[in-house]
Design a protein that fits this description.
The protein is an alpha+beta fold. It is built from 14 helices and 16 strands. Strands 7, 8, 9, 10, 11, 12, 13, 14, 15 and 16 form a ten-stranded mixed sheet that branches. Strands 4-3-5-6 form a four-stranded mixed sheet, sandwiched between helices. Strands 1-2 form a two-stranded antiparallel sheet. 33% of the residues are buried. The structure holds zinc ion (2 copies).
Length: 473
């Protein structure tokens, strides 16, 4: 059965994707512990202890303000101006399990009626009242994602470093041991808020459908809708189609195009990328596609057999759940007589590199005209003689403008069929990955050695070339 949803692939760490790293860093709740610089003036009478066994968890014990959950500790953090959310967060798990922040506060006021007038400030020193913005942040997140289908989210929040340092200092000194740090707590509060709104979202740390990064200072929300990937193999039945989109040479692909490209901005109206990618892009309401092929053939070369493996990257899809057989149908209807796809499957991003790095042997059929053709049997024998040979190829003239000059050694694995028809010869052969096949026939002015031209002792001119099979697993 075809998968209708992207599969959960292996965990991958995408080093190139800084955004993801940024967001992950934003999510991390473990901050480096800051040294406690807060031995305050009240502690001076402890000097005669010589700084020994009164240290509790690296904090000097403060008899006036012991850490929460001691009532004096709770009173102290209320005096510091801590908000109800943070009060609940640092008062101690036993208390906060059954008692809300405001109840903890009322109880403290009952114990010490003067406490209510002693709070130092309106702005919570632990969170700068960020918890009040949780609903607001949630609204902004869903506004940014309006119309986007997703089921998993990676959520990050960026907080000012000085706020986190100050929060850490107060919490480790006066908070109950084991209290949740600010960043993790605020993220959790936002997660809860999103769930309370009945949104069906899984919060994940890897491979999310969408990544959300919130700036805790400005409440700016950045949303990154992650691409989906489809693996398949294409057959190219035309000799006039490049694999990927080619910008127009005259206008370099300006948006409005030019006369030469009739406003398309493209050198070739069709490409395998767009014939396959455009219907998928439309179906998934995506922004764009990238095409990653297992190598490529020249524009005038067909690709037959079971086709060339590729991964289509679909960028910013609003829809990410779709019937795959339906997509295959859309592609084949769109690309009729030009490109064919038998099947597609959702895949992980890691498949892109697998496809690009894969080196497979290929079978080709090439047809060429021979200037002075000798006896048929001799020609066939001469060509068969190349079977199994190592071919040395200098970088061909036709690609030397974009490839460094060097000599490649490639094996001509086998000559499988030779046909002579008039002054034309047609050869089917299997070659190691990366063999320049046209050059193997016409020798590229002696830069490929040995060659068919040399073997039969007459000039050869290539008529056409087909990739018969790509021997990928
Ligand atoms: Zn607070
Ligand atoms: Zn143009």
């Amino acid at each position: 059965m075809a998968l209708d949803e992207p599969e959960a692939g292996p965990v991958e760490i995408d080093e190139e994707d800084e955004w993801q790293l940024y967001a992950s860093a934003g999510y991390a709740t473990i901050e480096p512990s800051f040294e406690d610089e807060s031995d305050e003036e009240e502690n001076t009478e402890e000097a005669w202890f010589d700084g020994d066994d009164f240290d509790v968890e690296a904090n000097s014990l403060n008899w006036d303000a012991p850490p929460c959950p001691a009532p004096l500790g709770i009173a102290h953090v209320i005096k510091l101006g801590v908000c109800d959310h943070c009060l609940s967060r640092i008062a101690g798990t036993r208390i906060s399990e059954t008692t809300s922040g405001s109840e903890i506060r009322s109880q403290a006021y009952e114990r010490d009626p003067e406490l209510s007038s002693k709070a130092l400030q309106d702005l919570c020193p632990l969170c700068e009242n960020l918890f009040e913005d949780v609903g607001n942040i949630t609204d902004r997140v869903f506004e940014s994602l309006h119309g986007t289908q997703f089921s998993t989210m990676q959520f990050g929040i960026h907080l000012p470093k000085d706020l986190m340092q100050e929060e850490d200092r107060i919490r480790t000194k006066f908070g109950a041991p084991g209290s949740n740090p600010l960043k993790g707590s605020i993220v959790e509060a936002i997660h809860d808020n999103i769930r309370e709104q009945g949104r069906n979202v899984d919060f994940v740390k890897e491979r999310p459908d969408v990544m959300v990064l919130v700036d805790g200072l400005t409440l700016r929300v950045d949303v990154d809708v992650r691409p989906v990937f489809l693996y398949g193999r294409y057959r190219k039945l035309s000799r006039e189609i490049p694999q990927t989109r080619w910008p127009c040479r005259a206008c370099r692909g300006r948006a409005e195009g030019c006369e030469a490209c009739e406003g398309s901005g493209l050198q070739y109206i069709d490409s395998v990328q767009d014939l396959i990618g455009e219907p998928v892009k439309e179906a998934l309401q995506a922004d764009d596609t990238s095409f990653h092929g297992m190598g490529r053939e020249d524009i005038d070369v067909r690709c037959l057999g079971s086709g060339r493996p590729f991964v289509l990257e679909v960028k910013k899809p609003r829809k990410r759940i779709h019937s795959v057989p339906e997509l295959v149908k859309l592609v084949n209807n769109n690309a009729e007589t030009k490109v064919e796809v038998d099947s597609l499957e959702w895949c992980a991003k890691s498949r892109v590199n697998e496809v690009k790095q894969s080196r497979s042997e290929k079978s080709y059929t090439i047809r060429f005209r021979v200037e002075q053709l000798g006896a048929e049997e001799e020609v066939i024998e001469a060509i068969q003689g190349l079977s199994g040979q190592i071919i040395e190829q200098e970088t061909p003239k036709r690609v030397s403008h974009r490839r460094a000059a060097k000599v490649r050694k490639r094996k001509l694995v086998s000559i499988d069929d030779v046909r002579v028809e008039g002054d034309e010869v047609q050869v089917t052969m299997r070659c190691e990955a990366g063999t320049y096949v046209k050059e193997l026939v016409h020798s590229d002015e002696g830069r490929t050695n040995p060659s068919i031209q040399e073997a039969i002792g007459s000039d050869c001119e290539v008529i056409w070339l087909d990739v018969e099979e790509i021997h990928a697993e």
